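Task: fold both queries, return tokens.
Query 1:
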Amino acid sequence: MKNFKRQLIIVFAFALFAGMLFAPVNAQAKTKTTTYQYDKKNGVCNKTAMRVAINRRYESTDVYLTKSGDYVASVKTSSPNLIAKVTTVNTTKRTYSINLSDDILLNYYNRSEITFLARSKGTYTATVTIKDKNGKKKCTKKIRVYATNDSYPFVSVSYGKQYLVSGTANTTSKKSGKLSVKINPTFKLKSVDVCKFTDNETLKVFKKKANNKILKLNMSTKYQFSYKWSESDTSENIVDVNYMNPVTPVRVVVYDTLLKTTVTYNFYLVYVK
């Protein structure tokens, strides 16, 4: 019964935060958060650089094509130690939209997934050839691939003796515990902050520099926020939220020294009696 209760809480918490968990998060207004670049002339959007963990499958990236009929004809690598293959092609008769960064909002006809397998550590180049609907070569795009021991920044993120997973609810019966974040060598830890909700999609920093400190969980299940439908709206709408269980968000900001990008990860601690 206790396990069933925990499962219900996890499902509830995940559904509650789903709109926020998978949204892109910028640490600063002009911080580089992705290596995606859009070639508007040729209608191609691809990453210019990415990480691949050695000897692990399913390390992939998507190439988006905004011209109808265009397709990825081939992908070649600079070394036999890096294997690349087009594994999924999603072609549509109408466009689909995707927001890849603050500056890149696309309507695409073709999304091609390229999967990599690295046999050894190193820096490689993948060359992607794009052709039009008549089979004529349009352009080539190069992706720099960094093959490292691990493409994930964290060695571990823990609360007490419990290891945490980003982007989901981590249930705990402990009201306090040591928060510890350890990262891999090619990443830099920029900040570890304890937050509170200001609305359904926004976190406000409550306590800074929380790494390797004792974290006392938020025991309140209630918060209130207000909004207006437009700037000209004279009325103010007030929303009262009362969670099933207290939630303490932890925000971790990491800098990738290879890709030169800054990425934010949110960890959610849900207190369960």
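Query 1 returned. Query 2:
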Amino acid sequence: MDQSYNNISDKDVFEILGISSKEDYFTNLLAETFNLSGNQEFRDRFCNMLSNDSFKIFNSADCRIHTRSVFYIDNIYGNGNRSKVLPDMILISSSQYKVVVIENKIFSDEGYKQTIAYSSPMLRSELNKLLETDGKNEVQVEFYYMTLLGEKANSENFKPLKWTNFIIKTCSNIIFKSPFDILTKDLLSRANELKDFINAPIDLNKSFSDYYNQHKRWIEPKTAYMKYFDPIFTDIYSKYNGKVETFVTKAKGRTPQLLILFSTNDWRRNDLEGYKNGNPIELFENTRNIHLEFTWHVGMADASFMIHYETNPYYSYKKFKQLYPEVEPLYKKHRESFKKDIKQVVTFSRYWKEANTVLALAKTSCKGFMNLPFNDFQKWFFNAFDEAYHMIDKVIESEI
């Protein structure tokens, strides 16, 4: 069977079925393998991966996994309505009064405060009802957030669970009953390939396009992008006193947009949340969040780099004017003054030029980002970054 399968295609079953980036199918496979395979070693390994010093599952035979069970809780907006929540996997041990909630995000990002809702006291109460404890036994609940690279959830109650480690430790050297055997072999193969990808250094002669195309059968552009930028993030952390944030956004009908934001404490000033608490307006007239923003739309040849000047926290201009009508003209005055000073220093820049948009003060672009060798791109990025960093600091120092 294995030989004939290999003769058909170099693709694995998930690719042939067109579900290689559908995390629900991977969730279902793990749950059904656990529930139906009858393989005690796999079940034991699975439960061991979810155990720790304060939470141990002693009898895996007593456990069952439920997928996307529906619960209704008070919603996170606090408007009195109820929200429907569907955690990806819930492992339940009725006799041990233990529950593990696993949220699978190997191919997607967390929804708005999703894990905060999933670990809320109200959901815990619903889990108690599910086990029908009647208050006689306390239910222990653990939360895990499964991702490709071990990212953290918004809720601190969720422990990160790296998908590669989980699959390799639970599936290696185990023979399952058909059809699970071939599927878990492919799953294990993917996990090992991803592990090699994570551990391998970046080839300085490869472009992002080369790098992504080599691995796109099992990773999204976001994952390749984050890995590709790891060396750059490391250098930024070590050389500059600031904060790096990464985001993925997607407008309807458009490809995902990947962003890197960099700012320092000196670049951020006068959080408007304090103004709501009755503090005098003079403290907030110069509210600002200056940051560098590197942006790439997935699939586009070029990438853009901008110096942004926004309110702190960010509001659209229309919303800001509506919420803070008395602060808006003062903010506008300070922003125009800063923009004028930036314009003067940009005149002498090798990389940057003035930008006339609502948010950006200056801009540059990396032509052919997709096809630039990493070594060349890294040099361009750091030269442009360093120049912008010192331009901003120079203007801020002149204000003092």
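Both queries returned. Flag for query 2: The two ends are 75 Å apart (CA to CA).
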